Fold this sequence. Notes:
There is one protein chain. Helices cover 0% and strands 36% of the residues. The protein is an all-beta fold. The protein has one domain (2-21, 31-63). The strands form 3 sheets. The chain has a two-stranded antiparallel ribbon with strand order 1-2. The chain has a two-stranded antiparallel ribbon with strand order 3-6. A two-stranded antiparallel sheet has the order 4-5. The radius of gyration is 13 Å and the shape is globular. The two termini are 16 Å apart. The model has no long low-confidence stretch (mean pLDDT 83).
Amino acid sequence: MFAAYLPYQASGAYDFGATDSSRYSGNIVFASVDNSQGFWQFPSESYKVGSQTFDATGTVGIAGKLF
Length: 67
């Protein structure tokens, strides 16, 4: 499990292994992850900036954790 907290014009954070309930509202959504290329790749169908949501159908996101 990982989460991205990216507030506007402020420091953000990526959480791996747990979530901080003070940083989100609503339900957590789980997606299948493909790690066959050495990083986590997952469907990324939309994104939101402020209150506006944008369609990104057919795109993928990637994430990884540095140790």
